[in-house]
Automatic annotation (TrEMBL):
Keyword Nucleotide-binding part of the UniProt annotation: no
UniProt cross-references to InterPro entries, sorted A to Z: AccD/PCCB, AcCoA_carboxyl_beta, ClpP/crotonase-like_dom_sf, COA_CT_C, COA_CT_N
Keyword hit for Transferase: no
Keywords: Ligase
GO molecular function: ligase activity
Chain ranges of the CoA carboxyltransferase N-terminal domain: 1-255
SUPFAM superfamilies registered for this protein in UniProt: ClpP/crotonase (SSF52096)
Annotated CoA carboxyltransferase C-terminal domain residues: 258-509
Full protein name: Acyl-CoA carboxylase subunit beta
E.C. number(s) listed in UniProt: 6.-.-.-
Domain of life where this protein originates: Bacteria
EC class: ligase
Amino acid sequence: MAGRIALLREKQEAAHASGGPEGLRRHRESGRLPVRERIDLLVDRDTWFEIGALALPELRREKPIPGDAVVTGFGLLDGRRIGVIGIDSSVVAGTTAPISMRKQGRLIEHAQRHGFPLVLLCDADGGRMPDVSGWRFSGLPLDFTTFLKPPPGQPVVPRAAAVLGPSYGDSALHASTAHYVVMVRSGSIALSGPSVVEPAIGEKVTDSELGGPAAATEAGNAHLVVDTEADAMDAIAAFLSYLPQNSAQRPPVAPPLPPGRDPKDLEEIVPLGTRSGYDMRDVFACVADEASILPWADGWGSSLLCALARIEGRPVGLVGNQPIVRAGALDPAALAKEKVFVQLCDTFGLPLVFLHDVPGLMIGTQAERGGILHGYEALVSAIAEATVPKVGVVLRKAYGGGHFAMGGRPTRPDFLYAWPSAELGFMAPETGIRTIHRRKLETVLAEQGPEAHAALVAELTAEWISEAEPWEAAAHLSLDDVVEPGRTREVVAASIDIALGGLSLGGAL
Ligand SMILES: CC(=O)SCCNC(=O)CCNC(=O)[C@H](O)C(C)(C)COP(=O)(O)OP(=O)(O)OC[C@H]1O[C@@H](n2cnc3c(N)ncnc32)[C@H](O)[C@@H]1OP(=O)(O)O
């Protein structure tokens, strides 16, 4: 037995050698940490439990490929179980071959079957050749039903990914299955890397141009960019802290905290004039518990902000228009982002809070070619189908399709409120009067001159705005109430509590 144990230890040591001294030196020199050091940064001390370490590729080479270039196992993160897949890019560029695919598939199956989050540490990768090419390709043990989605009847588990280097092929696909992707500033993520892109389509491009932070956040491939790998692990821990272990459980409730900013400040933050800008993040701070806001994909469709937050300790999803970006108009990217966020919150039981200040949907050729019609339909359906509590507050304006895209009445919100300053209607006043009074305005301009034209515009606008005020909407119960700005947080918190069936705050969920 002593001899067999010695042999096991020898094999274990080889398995932990990663790319060997030379591979690890090159890896560190590129500013990246070895995969097991990454895992140490992620999981609670002394909780790492690895499986599959002795895996080896089917197709052996002269140089060893320990673990088949991937590390898999389990740990605790802030005391809760997670599964981890860490690509070991110090070995053959972390490439994927049949055994490493099986290894990853086993981890995914464990996480799904036993119901805990999956964390993916992505770096380098792509299919290993010739292991996956030629006749071998058709026999790959790829199971897209486990790779992409839980099998029918099993709850969904949260997936979070960290992009820690140039991540292509399988690494990038892993990240694209994740509910949250954080990347380091030096990382990149794309379907194929520059060394494949140039020979294939003749485009000469750098890693950073192709999938660096600017490209990745604009496309929604990464939700947050951080400086260091340690920051990336902290961001993953923060993200998972809002979510239950799986979609069959309730989200964890934290001790209630006061808001980050006095809700009374809302009276000053949001200007009365509908054309003045302000930062919706200031509104979030007045509504959410202090230090509880985690921005989600600010760089994607940035005229809309999404964030995970807590209100009186309860995790929620905040959705707000951002008036300082294209006046908060919703373009195809903003609609696509909102849909994914709404589905994330709906999957994991987080109530949705919509803070409306929206001039409408983006119109014109660019928006049409960007698929705004499909995007709008998909979003409005996702909001209508969401079964978590939905609470909306119209702060300033909510026009037309923009209002519905923010959880307006037809999408069946549980509660819908407005501030006394709110305007609601089918179209913004300036656009509306120019549409329906076009001929009359042209005649007045031609026959009576610009002053008379301006006076008529002002008169028609005032008439339109008076119709758009919240009083009639409240009188017809299109709104549940008109509330003072300073009461927004308290009204939202009470509405969520009622919509959850009165489960007491911080109680046993
Ligand atoms: C659907 C899909 O999978 S599409 C994906 C297509 N794949 C890609 O786009 C990835 C293309 N590859 C790359 O861009 C780069 O190789 C990276 C970014 C992954 C890694 O770059 P680097 O860290 O500089 O590593 P480098 O390219 O030097 O490779 C390291 C070693 O792995 C080997 N290697 C790299 N890629 C592969 C591969 N696909 N198959 C087999 N071996 C490979 C290299 O030959 C090299 O071996 P050596 O040390 O014996 O010379």
